[in-house]
Amino acid sequence: MNQSILFSDDAQWNEETQTVLFSAQQMGNLIQCGVTTSWLESESGEQIINDSDALRIFEEYRFDVEEQAEALIEDEEFNASGEIIIN
Fold it and tell me: Record's Pfam families (predicted)?
């Protein structure tokens, strides 16, 4: 894991976008990240019914999510809002 990218333990559910949001820090810059329920469902093979399911599966797959987010950050795959979204 690249030590220049640090991930916070601040996961939260966003009902509107159906994503689990979390943040990363790279060289002092805060980067808002998110992972969609469809990605989490695909990785886990489970159906996400509510926010509790989403956050539980996120925690179970945290290492994989962070690894994917790290690769996207390094490749500068930011969306128009400057976020990294795994979908």
Answer: DUF1488
